[in-house]
Amino acid sequence: MNAFQIADTFVALDDASHARPLPYTPDFWQAIVTGRLGPFSRLVSCFSYDSDWPGWERHPAGEEFVCLLEGAVELHLEKDGVHDTVVLDQPGAYVLMPTNTWHTAKVRKPARMIFVTPGEGTQNRPV
């Protein structure tokens, strides 16, 4: 058994409750898109932010778990023309991002967050 760091080795979860480590490399996102990393239904990842996200994203395959580990962020959500804002400013605060909801983050204080994402079909657009 090995110990990993979530900041540089993510976790792929499948529908059969199996998990496997996925090293985060410079070509990680391209490897996801091309299928080189194999199938999975959820990705557990961790990122640090010191500036606002440069774009919006949405996940049509399901809800996304977004948890603040440190810092503070303001999440902006948009679905069917309805806008909402959620502030995460306490370690451990989290949201369940609704399926197919556009979202982005404004960083209030440098932050570190963990995500459990249903990545299939994820869409992006600029802010």
Topology:
Elements: E1 9-13, E2 19-23, H1 28-34, E3 42-49, E4 55-58, E5 64-79, E6 82-88, E7 94-97, E8 102-117, E9 123-126
Antiparallel strand pairs: 1-2, 1-3, 3-8, 4-9, 5-6, 5-7, 5-8
Please provide the count of β strands: 9
CATH superfamily: Jelly Rolls
The rounded Rg comes to 15 Å
Helix and strand content put the structural class at mainly beta
The coarse silhouette is globular
What CATH architecture do you see?
Answer: Sandwich
For the sheet with most strands, the description reads: 7 strands, antiparallel
The proportion of residues in beta strands is over 45%
CATH class: Mainly Beta
CATH topology: Jelly Rolls
Tally of separate helices: 1
Distance between the termini: 42 Å
What share of the residues lie within helices?
A: under 10%
Give average pLDDT, whole number.
95
- How many domains, in number, for the residues? 1
Low-confidence stretches: none
Q: Encode the helix/strand succession as letters.
A: EEHEEEEEEE
